Amino acid sequence: MIDVITLGNELLRQKSAPVEGVDEKLRQFFRDMFEIMSRQKGVGLAAVQVSSLLRFFITNVPKDKPRIFINPEIIETSIEQDVYEEGCLSVPGVNADIERPSSVKIQAYNEKERPFTLSCENNLLARVIQHELDHLNGVLFIDHLPEGLKRELVTEYINNKKKKAAS
Fold first, then answer.
1. Which domain does 125 fall in, by range?
2. Does the annotation mark 132 as catalytic?
3. Number of domains in the chain
């Protein structure tokens, strides 16, 4: 079974490569990722978070259907910004208020390799899309914080990890 990698793993800082095609092996990988995300109670998961540098992510946001975004690209963002508390399966136990555009328009391909465009306005899906797309570019949500707060949260994360390992 594949596991979610966490802060400190160098893969999280690398840019993901485009998906060249969808075969049965990749479809099984999508299913495995949905299972992992569900088990860990997440709402989004990028391939890099499970050690694959392929350019796709999945979402399963309440009041929306499960989605797969292959080779995604945000083509429009709103001027309006919202602050919302974010967490991440790759940085467990750390949450922080992050400012992002309220709305986005994204282009991507689905699991059948069909292109689609989706507009998300003022909702959790817009936030999750931005968060997961950041992962594909080697960016973590904590990178959006001022340096001092980022350092403080990373230190807290490392200390919590050491405490868990000792117990």
1. 10-166
2. yes
3. 1
Has residue 47 been placed in a domain? yes
- CATH number assigned to the domain comprising residue 39: 3.90.45.10
Which pairs count as long-range contacts for 139-147, CB under 8 Å and 24+ apart, including other chains?
A: 140/7, 140/12, 140/88, 140/90, 140/91, 141/86, 141/87, 141/88, 141/91, 141/96, 141/98, 142/91, 142/94, 142/96, 144/98, 144/99, 144/100, 145/96, 145/98
pLDDT tens, residue order, the chain (167 aa) = 689 999 989 999 999 999 999 999 999 999 999 999 999 999 999 999 999 999 999 999 999 999 999 999 999 999 999 999 999 999 998 899 999 999 999 999 999 999 999 999 989 999 999 999 999 999 999 999 888 877 787 777 777 776 777 77
Active-site residue, from 80, 85, 113, 132? 132
Residue 2 corresponds to which amino acid?
Answer: I
Q: Which of 20, 16, 71 is nearest to 48 (CA)?
A: 16
